[in-house]
Amino acid sequence: MIAVVLHSNMSWWLVIGLSIGAYVFKVSGLVVIGARTLPVPLERCLILIPAALLAALVIKDTFSLGQELVVDARSAGLAVAVVAAWRKAPLIIVVVLAAGATALIRAAG
Amino acid sequence: MSRTPLSQMSAPVRSVVVSSLTLSGAVGVFGISFGVLAVSAGASVAQTCALSLFTFTGASQLSAMSVIATGGTAGAALGGALLLAARNGVYGLALAPFIKGPLRNRLFAAHFVIDETTAMTTAQSEPRLRKIAFWTTGIALFYLWNLGTFVGAIIGSGIDPQKYGLDVAFTAAFVAMLAPHLRSVKGRQAAALGALICLVLIPSAPIGVPILAAGLAVFIGLQRP
After folding, report:
1. Is the separation of the CB atoms in B39 and B152 below 8 Å?
2. What was the ipTM of the complex prediction?
3. Which domain range does residue A68 map to?
């Protein structure tokens, strides 16, 4: 069975924009700013970006279907992932366990 | 990179090389699921491989494809992914004292400034081991992440990601990447606030925008700890 994507906004512009943007950030830290220091409050904010965004991505990918809030098999996958990550399992194990749990629930339901 | 066989390396060097290669292997396997998911979100095999080759920062690639997969615009996907990529700038600052040499070398090294190389490099105590950790992790991980992406993109067009729970692979990866950031109080506050902003905005804001808006949570960093 092949998953059919009815409409996707994927474009080469996204690939190019993201590639240039990511490299600009990498170079500005390593080469442009280098050993000089940033204002402390700014640095404190930048360090929090992954925490804020990753948590939001988890919420979106688990509980949303378009603009609708839903609870389905993905919630079980999230629960398994949380326990595995909390037990400090490696990334790949967290992913495999969560995907497996979700697939099992879908197969059963 | 060193051409010495693994058995002839000194114990500390061998330990650094072995852990770099182990980490890269795991990331390579994860690259397969990125490839599968990117293709099922509507990216072509070429676009998927280009993302891993030229963007080369996993969380941003995943975030962009996750927004596209749920019907968000390219602009919203780009915004959230770029915000996530900004942390590579902070990593660059942390690595700058260890990556020396001519400008040309540093411009090349910059492409490899990501979560894994930063973690491996800063974990070493000696300058020589730091250099070995950076380059071994950077090159091996680049190679395996791209190989995994290619394999995943090729097989991805033939399988239904939902059947194998692969749509949850993104979520699980985000959870694993989030875990180390929850060790500090500020990290936990930013995560909780980001999640809340996203949850509240999902029913009303255009798809992808709740992720961008969650970025506002970082301003709690302005407050002194």
Report:
1. yes
2. 0.85
3. 40-108
